Amino acid sequence: MKVELELPPDVGAVLMERARAAGLSLDQFAARTLSALAGGEHSAREASPEERLRALDDFLAGLESDSTLPEEAFHRENWYPDRW
Questions:
Q1: pTM for the whole thing?
Q2: Inter-residue contact 29 to 15 (CB < 8 Å)
């Protein structure tokens, strides 16, 4: 099915940026997004548990965490200082 849309320039710019970030053409990005909205093949509801876990692992791998908690953070008396 072919669909033609007239979008405001600011909306079009946002969609183009998102499509570029996903490495897709605007047509591909729109088709994927509309398919997901309709519950199509790219819908998160249809992803297998393994695909969901892989997506979560990919997301978490992209996060940077160089902070560590001091040893005192693991002592119960420091969790609730007003109770001791």
A1: 0.46
A2: yes
